[in-house]
């Protein structure tokens, strides 16, 4: 078998066999196939695409290119959830304790933020003392003891994906549907999940801005799950405006705590209940999404989800008092506010721009290795379609003194990101489609 022949075969639009895909991924991971040949193959995939069967074979090879997590020591069906990335997306912080409090074991591995989208691990590390790096045996022990744990991705998981993603990043092949799908699903399979729930976001704050592209990706990943015998449910959700009202690490922890007290924003509560219901259904803990959502609503309103989060924080050496006293979280040195210059209706809250502004304040990183200011971020006080009067507060910037010189420019950008119209504009439906 020669890599040249496989590049040619895919360039001509032919379907690769499982053995050929295995040869490519194993050879590249072992440094036996050079970057320039893999780049040529990735470009051929970009233009010719892959069948669902090819993509499933690719996903399997990516998943098994390094270590895999064995969750068999945890009783019950293990369900993982993945978001394709958004602005103010703090769902994991609510979902994990919510679903665990309903009796479903949730061993969750999460990532850090990069660019305009935030990362769950960065958010959790804004809790004083919280440990996100714990060894795998302790991770599994904690899930068995209290039903949940949230840690950073550890070990040699999916090294093929790391190499391939870095190559795609510099060869203009990142936005290839089969390569995106196999990257996401490969990590989920390697993480040991029995069933998978996907939050596929669309809109200005997501990586899949166009709804039809997001739908294609969701359908492809559900097909991959079917091919690999993993029950998979995808929810297509709106990310044209930030989720909730806060963007930034400590700010989002505070909002997640309020949501666990059943006092959070309507959109965040809705999406967490819907995703949680999908997790119960995918895992076989419920036969009906509506029944599962009703069960989780009781769990939330009873305070059991809040108490489960308290257990998680305590087990991972964080200070659980932040749930009752958010003043214990990191706080910004400077808070600056913008107000409405006219009366009208909120016509747009551009999620991507809000995320980029938060990043510029120190809440995110432009490249891996950049430091994070846990207190930095943006509060957006309004939602699309809401009526406002002239002089009403629209948003606030939270930042450190060292960013003071950037504030005039960032405040002006924030004004442009929160637009007001004389006529009411309806907000987009949050849950746009459920794909099984």
Task: Please tag this protein with its features.
3 domains; globular; 15% strand; Aldehyde Oxidoreductase, domain 3; 4-stranded antiparallel β-sheet; Pyrimidine Nucleoside Phosphorylase, Chain A, domain 2; Transferase, Pyrimidine Nucleoside Phosphorylase, Chain A, domain 3; alpha/beta
Structure description:
- By secondary structure, the chain is α/β, with parallel strands linked by helices.
- It folds into three domains: 3-49, Transferase, Pyrimidine Nucleoside Phosphorylase, Chain A, domain 3, CATH 1.20.970.10; 79-323, Pyrimidine Nucleoside Phosphorylase, Chain A, domain 2 (3-Layer(aba) Sandwich), CATH 3.40.1030; 332-421, Aldehyde Oxidoreductase, domain 3, CATH 3.90.1170.
- Helices cover 44% and strands 15% of the residues.
- It has helices at residues 3-11, 18-29, 35-48, 52-63, 91-101, 120-124, 136-146, 159-169, 177-190, 211-227, 249-260, 266-282, 289-302, 304-315, 351-360, 407-417; strands at residues 79-83, 106-110, 148-152, 195-202, 231-238, 246-247, 334-339, 344-349, 377-380, 387-388, 393-399, 418-421, 431-435.
- The strands form four sheets. It has a four-stranded mixed beta sheet, sandwiched between helices.
- The longest helix is centred in the middle third of the chain and has 17 residues, at 211-227.
- The two termini are 37 Å apart.
């Amino acid at each position: 078998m020669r890599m040249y022949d496989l590049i040619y075969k895919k360039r001509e639009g032919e379907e690769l066999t499982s053995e050929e895909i295995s040869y490519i991924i194993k050879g590249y991971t072992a440094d036996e196939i050079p970057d320039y040949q893999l780049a040529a193959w990735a470009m051929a995939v970009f233009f010719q695409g892959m069948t669902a069967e090819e993509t499933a074979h690719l996903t399997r090879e990516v998943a098994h290119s390094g270590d895999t997590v064995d969750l068999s020591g945890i009783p019950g069906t293990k369900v993982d959830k993945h978001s394709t990335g958004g602005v103010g997306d703090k769902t994991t912080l609510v979902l994990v304790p919510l679903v665990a409090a309903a009796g479903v074991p949730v061993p969750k591995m999460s990532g850090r933020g990069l660019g305009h989208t935030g990362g769950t691990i960065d958010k959790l590390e804004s809790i004083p003392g919280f440990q996100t790096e714990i060894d795998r045996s302790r991770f599994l022990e904690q899930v068995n003891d209290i039903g949940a744990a949230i840690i950073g991705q550890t070990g040699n998981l999916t090294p093929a994906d790391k190499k391939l993603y870095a190559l795609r990043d510099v060869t203009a092949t990142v936005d290839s549907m089969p390569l995106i799908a196999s990257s996401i699903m490969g990590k989920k399979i390697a993480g040991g999940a029995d069933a998978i729930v996907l939050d596929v976001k669309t809109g200005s704050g997501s990586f899949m801005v166009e709804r039809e592209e997001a739908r294609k990706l969701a359908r492809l990943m559900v097909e991959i799950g079917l091919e690999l015998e993993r029950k998979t449910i995808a929810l297509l959700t709106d990310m044209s405006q930030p989720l909730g009202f806060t963007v930034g690490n400590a700010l989002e922890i505070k909002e997640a705590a309020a949501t666990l007290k059943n006092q959070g924003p309507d959109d965040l509560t809705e999406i967490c209940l819907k995703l949680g219901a999908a997790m119960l259904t995918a895992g076989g803990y419920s036969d009906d999404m509506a029944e599962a959502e009703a069960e989780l609503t009781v769990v939330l309103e009873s305070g059991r989800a809040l108490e489960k989060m308290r257990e998680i924080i305590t087990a991972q050496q964080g200070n659980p008092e932040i749930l009752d006293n958010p003043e214990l979280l990191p706080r910004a040195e400077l808070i600056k506010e913008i107000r409405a210059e006219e009366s009208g209706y909120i016509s747009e809250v551009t999620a991507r721009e809000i995320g980029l502004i938060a990043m510029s304040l120190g809440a995110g990183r432009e490249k891996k290795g950049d430091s994070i200011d846990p207190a930095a971020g943006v509060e957006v006080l309004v939602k699309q379609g809401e009526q406002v009067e002239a002089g009403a507060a629209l948003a606030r910037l939270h930042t450190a003194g060292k960013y003071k010189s950037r504030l005039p420019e960032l405040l002006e950008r924030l004004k442009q990101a929160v637009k007001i119209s004389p006529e009411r504009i309806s907000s987009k439906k949050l849950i746009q489609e459920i794909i099984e």
